[in-house]
Amino acid sequence: MNQYESLARHMKDADVQKQLAWLYGADEKQLVMQTERYISILKRHEQRYSAEAPVALISAPGRCEVGGNHTDHNRGRVLAASVNLDTLAAVSPRSDMTVRLASEGYRPITVSLDHLEKREDETGRTAALIRGVAFRMRELGYAIGGFDAEVTSTVASGSGLSSSAAFEVLISAIFDKLYNRFDMTGITRAKIGQFAENVYFGKPSGLLDQSACAYGGLVAVDFREDDPEVQPLSYDFAEKGYSLVVVSAGGSHANLTDDYAAIPKEMREVASLLGASYLREVDPLVFEASIGKLRGKTSDRAILRAIHFFDENDRVPRQVKALKNDDLKTFFEEIIASGRSSYMYLQNVYVDATQENLCLALALAERTLRDKGAWRVHGGGFAGTTLNFVPFDLLPRFVSVMEDAFGASCCHVLNIRPVGAYALEV
Q1: What's the mean pLDDT when you consider all of the chain?
Q2: Which domains are seen in the chain, by residue range?
């Protein structure tokens, strides 16, 4: 019996099933699906590579932004959670510095790690993330090496659950598992991913996505300092009778990089005019008193976005307090207020009048969930997704309303995953 047959056979062992239930939820259908998924990726790895070196199974979760919309890049506060949708790899080490990676639905790629400097021709491509993670890990003193990976993901690109951050966390976890001790801290893993995305891939982002994917569970994160303060929270929305549902309302993220980049840029313009680098460094009362003087020196939209930052940054601690007090009414009020602030002040719900799909998704959610749940724009905004807290008894109707408007499979019903990057023990 080769290692692939042995690993596949042990996937149904009680201790392995317990790990899968921990990662994905204890629903029997979910466990059957995940068991088959893991066995399938092992088979694909065998067919493509037939490795003699040990094969590891490594998973990195997607993330859900609960509170703190576009605050992290100005050193603000966020509330986020890793979810039970993930990017999964079957991976084996190589004796050279070559990475061969085949991701389901995409062309296989090969990346040489012999030279790790940034390559302009890789900007915006998967190879840039691999090379960027490898560069930063080696710079921090970690060992790196080649590997053969078969990858699959339920964190679909454009789902608003941060497929890029999940992939970055996965790649650092692969290097960590194969060539180090697999004991990298969450903040280190998050910063490595952000570096790869910002510097090598060429996409400006804060640290929210990578932090949520790297830490796992529900966390409140304060980005005031270079090393963020992470506060794990324990709250079971399902136990209270609510599902977390992310709705993909359609629209493309293509050609929106400039729109995303304008948000931190404009916030920092306001901060700079008030003598600071980031809005978090500005006294909110000083900002309020300076609005008249700011007009004409920066755009009104920049001022509105700064208003959103200060309000949203204060909103996150109230959300955390409400959860600690088991006060869902107040929590939902704060979630709805967050969404309205994003809509009115941050202005990241649409780019122009031809792309108002998110507006419609929010309107339909409000009409369906009013006084019974909560809704808000999710993540980057513009094109993309909404986050909804839906009572169990309303879930079928909610899904039906959204699918009628945005198509089948637009709703992602989520569980909070308690751990970030994870190597299955088989």
Answers
A1: 94
A2: 3-234+417-423 (3.30.230.10), 242-414 (3.30.70.890)
